[in-house]
Each structure stands twice: as structure tokens, then as C-alpha cells.
Amino acid sequence: MAALAARAAYAGLRRRPPAGEKTWTRTNHRGELVTLLEGPAVALGTVAGTAVAGTVGANRRDLAVTTATLGALGFGVLDDMRGSGKRRGLRGHLGALAHGEVTTGAVKLAGLAVTGLGAALLDGGDPADVAINAGLIAGGANLLNLFDLRPGRAIKVATGTAALMAVSGALAGGDSSRYIAAVAAPVGAALALLPEDLAERAMLGDAGANALGAALGASAARTLPRSARAGLLGAIVALTLASEQVSFTRVIERTPPLRWLDMLGRRPAPRAVPLADGPLTGGALTRDPVLTAPVPDGRVPAVPTEPVTRRRPPGRHRRAADGDSRTRSGGWLLALLKPPARQEP
After folding, report:
1. Angle at 180 between CA 177 and CA 186, to 5 degrees
2. Following DSSP, what letter does each residue of 204-239 receive, concatenated?
3. What is the pTM of this model?
4. Percent of the chain residues past pLDDT 90, beyond the cut
5. Extents of the domains making up the chain
């Protein structure tokens, strides 16, 4: 039901995008135009699937998942629409806040914290449980957004996380079907729009990634035992802090299994066009470096360059101009008799 609702929401939003299509159009990593409407569609599909599960008595805590999803969606849309992109990460937004600048990213971080706390209070439990659950919801929303840098990556991470949650819950001695049911709505909605993401026609954006991460955090909060939730929260905090120092994209590209999984289903990466030898490539200096296409055997054809001739020192071998004063007045004879002056090169 979540998958069907997500596809229906996406079709409706594409047909009549709120505030116009240009409002939701962005440029991806290839420089191509994509739509951000995938994010709201995933969030709406998650809420619809959760509501259907609630009507059949699956769990009385479904309201916490709905609150987490819609709250993260709202603050994510704010950052998508108003964010400038000049400040990134916790360091960027908190650093700006320390200097009196309130960025949309900082507002979103505060909003996610409030959303997580509200959903955790709806979920119930003692103060320790509320604190852990609030961290899972807010931290999960923020962390998943850090992976939404390449097509399909955030959805793959969300699906893998949901699978680990189900496995860890089953190993803890619980009913595996209960854990699968807890993550069915967010994962189903995300997988329904994975083809659009992989084809680079749409992307989750902050709205979709925040909503999906918050929904998974709320699902973990209502199903996993406290020890598992505490361990998951520690992993979220560690990865979030690591992202301030390490690029997830570089780590993935340098790790063959992760790179294979990241490229699974994606369009091939654009082939880099080599540069001829020049100041940008560290080769011999040329007057104008040019782009060249590789020949069939993989070599780059040589680029003819202009021969660089040495300039003569100024003052030597200068030809007298027409009307030179020495020519007009017969000074040429004196010039022949006078020894030439030594000139420095």
C-alpha cells in the first residue's frame, strides 16, 4: 500500500507541482535537471502505508511514525526551497549560528530535534527511552540526508538499514515479522520510486531523505530493545561526526564492494576527456592546451605546438624607420665613423 500510494502521489505531484515545476527543479551531479518531487511522494506513501497498517490494528504507535515523517518532511522542504548551500554540515550551520547568522540548515536541525522529541514522547517510555528514541529519529533523518549525493544511494542505505534492523530484532529473540512490518511502509514507498532515482529523473532532496530517515528512526524506536537502540544511536552519532572530516563519496569510490553496490542500477559514470600536455596536466608547456579525444588504442594523439623562438635583446638589429633623423641630415656618415656603444642584453 505504501508503494502504491507513493507512485500515485508522485504522478499527481508531477502533473500539478505545487508552486510550479521550476520550484522543484534542481541540477544533479551530472549537471542535468531533476525534480525534487520524489521526496514528498516517498513521505506521503510512508504516511499512507502507516495509516493503513494502523486501521488494521498493527500497532498503536503508528502516530509517532507519522509525526516523525511529516515533521521531517516539512523542515526538509524548507531547506530545499530556501537553503543557499553556502553552509554545509553541522560545522557550517553551527559555525554560522555562533556568528549570529541563522541559516535554514540550522532551523532544520532544530526542527528535526523538536520533531524527534515529539515523536518520542508519543511513543512513550521512561526518560532514557525518550532520549534515545528522539536521537534515533532526529539523527537518522540528518544522517540519511548525508548519503543523498548520488542516484539511489540514500534509498539503498535505507533499505540496508531496514534489513539490519529486522535481522537484529530477530536475533534478539523477537518475532521477525513484527520487525519487517515496522519498516515495510518507509522501505516500500522508497523502493517504489527507486527507478526514478536511478534513472536520474528525480531525487529525494532534503525533504525526502529527512523524512525517510526519520521514519526509519521511529520504526527502530518502537520495535528494537533498548540495547540495540543505544548501539544504533551510537553508530549514527559516530557516522555524523565522521562526515565532518571524511567524504562518504570518496570512501565508497575507493572501496570496491561499496562502489559496486553504489553503481548497481545506475547510469554509467561519464568518461573523463583527457587533456593534452600542458600546464593543467603537468606535461610540457604549450601555448594553448586543448581537449582531445582518445584514439582507438587508448593513446592521446600528440598536439602540435608552435615553436617558441627566442626574442632578440632589445636594441640590436633594429632597422631605421623611414624619415630617421640620421638619414635626413647625413648623420649616417658620423654613425659609421663612431664606434658602436655597448648594449646590455
Report:
1. 155
2. -HHHHHHHHHHHHHHHHHHHS-HHHHHHHHHHHHHH
3. 0.74
4. 48
5. 2-263
